[in-house]
Amino acid sequence: MQTRTLGPFEVSPIGLGCMNLSHAYGAPVAAEAGERVLLAALDAGVTLFDTAALYGFGANEELVGRVLKPHRQRITLCSKGGMAGVRCEDGVMRRVIDGRPSTLRTNCEDSLRRLGTDVIDLYYLHRWDKQVPIEDSVGELSRLVAAGKVRAIGLSEVSAATLRRAHAVHPVAAVQTEYSLWTRNPEIAILDACRELGAGFVAFSPLARGFLCGDLTDVGTLHDKDIRRAMPRFAPEAYAANLKLLDGYRRIARDAGCTPAQLALAWLLHQSGHIVPIPGTTSVEHLRNDLDAANVRLPAAMIERLNVLINEFTVVGQRYSAQSANEVDTEAF
C-alpha cells in the first residue's frame, strides 16, 4: 500500500471525507449505509478518516466513532472544532464559529466522547474566528496536545500569513482547504507555505462537489437542503456555462483510461507528494472507484491539457456566497 506523509503520520494517499454521510448534501444516509462505506474504506486500505463536530451536529462523529472504534489503532482519526452546532434561544440548532479557548476545549472534549477515543490524531481549527487572535486559538490547541487529548493540530481554510502566525505558536501538521481543478485558490500561496513549513495539505471537495464526477448535469435535481443550492457555481446559469467544460474533460478521462472522478483525484495526487485528497461518498462502488485513482498515471502533456481546460479563469461563479466567503480567511483568495 502506498502512503503519504501528513505531519507525523503515514497515511493512505487518498483518505475518506466522512461529512456527507451525515451532513450538507441533503437528507443524511441511513446508518447502515454509512457503516458500509466506512468499513469498505477500511477494508480497501484507507487509513485517514476525516470528520468534524459540525457534521450532523455531532452525528457524524458518533457514526465514525461507533464503526471504527474496534479498528482505532489502524487509522489516523481527524476531527475539527471551533465551528459547531449551538442551540439558540429559539431552540434551533445553528452553526456557530467560535474560536475562544474555552469553546475549543469543550468542543474537543465533546468530540472525544462522541468518537469513543482518548485521543484525536489530528485536530483542526475548523474556521479561524476573526474575533479571536489565531495565536489564542492555536495556543489552546497546543495545550490539548500537552494534555494528551490531541496528537497534532491542523487549520482549515486559512491564508499563508495566518498559517505562519499559527505555526509560530505550535507546529501545524496539516492545512485543509478546498482544492481541485476548478478551485485553484491554494495555488496562490498556501501550498508553498505548507511545503516550506513541513505541513501536509488535505484537499477537501477534490471532485468539485460532484461536478468532476461528470454525471451531475441538472442542478434542479439537488435536494432542497443541499448546500450547493447556495453556491454561485451551482446557480442554474453559472452551472450551465460550467457544463460546457465536461465534454472536453470526459475526452481526457477516456484518453487516460480512467473515470472522470479518478482523473480529478489523479490530477491532485500529481500536484505534490504532500497533498492528500479526501473525497466523500455514500456509495461503496464510488468509493472503490475513487481509491483506484492512486494507480492512475498522468503524463505531463495530459496534466497540461487539464490545466488549460479547467482553471480559475474558465470556471464560472465563486465557490461561496458572499456571506460564506466572509467566514473564511479571505486573504488566501
TrEMBL record:
- For whether the record's keyword set contains Lyase, the answer is no
- Asked if Oxidoreductase is a keyword of the record, the answer is yes
Q: What keywords were assigned to this record? A: Oxidoreductase, Plasmid
Gene3D superfamilies on file: NADP-dependent oxidoreductase domain
Q: Show the Pfam families listed in the entry.
A: Aldo_ket_red
A cellular component term from Gene Ontology for this protein is: cytoplasm
Q: Which domain of life is it from?
A: Bacteria
Task: State the InterPro entries in the record.
Answer: Aldo-Keto_reductase (IPR050791), NAD(P)_OxRdtase_dom_sf (IPR036812), NADP_OxRdtase_dom (IPR023210)
GO molecular-function annotation terms? oxidoreductase activity
Residue ranges annotated for the NADP-dependent oxidoreductase domain, each copy included: 13-307
The record's annotation in PANTHER family points to: AFLATOXIN B1 ALDEHYDE REDUCTASE, ALDO-KETO REDUCTASE YAKC [NADP(+)]
Name the chain's protein.
Aldo/keto reductase
Q: What species does this protein belong to?
A: Acidovorax carolinensis
Cite the source lineage.
Bacteria, Pseudomonadati, Pseudomonadota, Betaproteobacteria, Burkholderiales
